[in-house]
Design goal:
The protein has 224 residues and is of the alpha+beta class. It is built from five helices and eight strands; from the N terminus they run αβββαβαββββαα.
């Protein structure tokens, strides 16, 4: 086994990627959806990983948890998940409501090795997962139409790795990709349902608020 942590991480990505399941669990709207996000201290020595579960029938928060600690891995392009996965798994483990779907602030298949954060978490938890990025990691795309719901393909090496989706009229699009146990059509549909008023899904907005607040509070904690 390699003693180089970067080489070892890449090997682990390849091992886990073989476990990806890209079949779709079905057309139904998942009821309990967890938004996942991570915030970092200015000096990059601490992070807060948040998991917030929304009931999609009411768009209300039904559970939340946060884990505060140190990044688990140095910053290496393409290996970002190794910094965040341990904290996010800890936060998910603190939840009392089991989510039907994970929505990650990041990417899934839209990754140089087709195994971004949403894939990593989906495989490790066994849950359907999608990535919703604010900016692209790679790929070529044409601007989608200006109306809510319009989209264009995100393409890399001739492969559609995600979609560029307009969630609100005239606002910047988001970058949606599949993580695990979800089709791209289904992922786009879910993201639009989770973003009735703003550019980002309500799950992402709630998780962002929680992890930023947790950094200010400091100690590792869970719950509201």
């Amino acid at each position: 086994m390699s003693t180089d942590p970067i080489a070892a991480a890449k090997a682990e990505q390849e091992r886990l990627r073989a476990l990806l399941d890209l079949t779709d669990p079905g057309p139904a709207q998942p009821r309990f959806v967890a938004g996942l996000d991570v915030a970092y201290s200015i000096d990059d020595t601490r992070l807060a990983a948040a998991a917030v579960v929304l009931d999609t029938t009411t768009m209300t928060v039904v559970d939340e948890a946060v884990s505060v600690g140190a990044p688990a891995f140095p910053y290496v392009p393409g290996l970002f998940a190794f910094r965040e996965v341990p904290g996010l798994l800890d936060a998910l483990g603190r939840l009392r409501v089991t989510p039907d779907l994970l929505v990650c602030d990041g990417h899934g298949l839209a990754h140089p090795r087709r195994f971004g954060l949403a894939c990593h978490l989906g495989v490790l938890t066994g849950r359907p997962a999608i990535g919703v990025g604010k900016t692209p990691l790679l790929g070529e795309w044409a601007p989608p139409g200006s109306r809510r719901g319009e989209w264009s393909a995100l393409v890399d090496a001739g492969e559609e790795i995600g979609r560029v989706v307009r969630t609100q009229d005239g606002v910047k699009p988001v970058f949606v990709s599949v993580g695990h146990r979800m089709s791209l059509d289904h992922a786009v549909s879910v993201v639009l349902a989770l973003a009735p008023r703003y550019r980002l899904p309500e799950t992402t907005r709630a998780a962002d608020h929680l992890c930023r607040g947790a950094l200010l509070r400091g100690p590792n904690r869970s719950g509201p």
